[in-house]
Amino acid sequence: MTTVIDSQGNIIMAKYLISFPSAAMVVPDGEWDAVVHDAHAVIEEAKVAGVYVFGGGIDESVAPVLVSADGSFAEGGYPWAPQLNGGFTILEVPSRDEAVAWAARIAKACRCAQELRVFQYDPAS
User: Fold this and answer.
1) Averaged pLDDT for residues 15-19
2) Gene3D superfamilies from the xrefs (predicted)?
């Protein structure tokens, strides 16, 4: 169950990550303008609905920085982990069904499948 109820019986909406890797964006030439328009339209709808938290695409021209617990850092991410790229949207909605519906709208606009994940509830965050 991803909907959390507080002690007063109020629904605490869950945050969902909707994302795709760069390789999933296979858009035919001539359709990019339509994809950008359609994706921005869905994001605007999410903002108007009050469910949009944050979103964007990873800037793949900038290398990640791996920062250690002691504060030292080096360019590059974890050498053993897959590269993180692509785009993501974080929405806060009352149910998984609603999150799936928004993911479907984003998938249609972006012309590629979206992965949906829920963030664990943490009352301190």
Assistant:
1) 97
2) Dimeric alpha+beta barrel
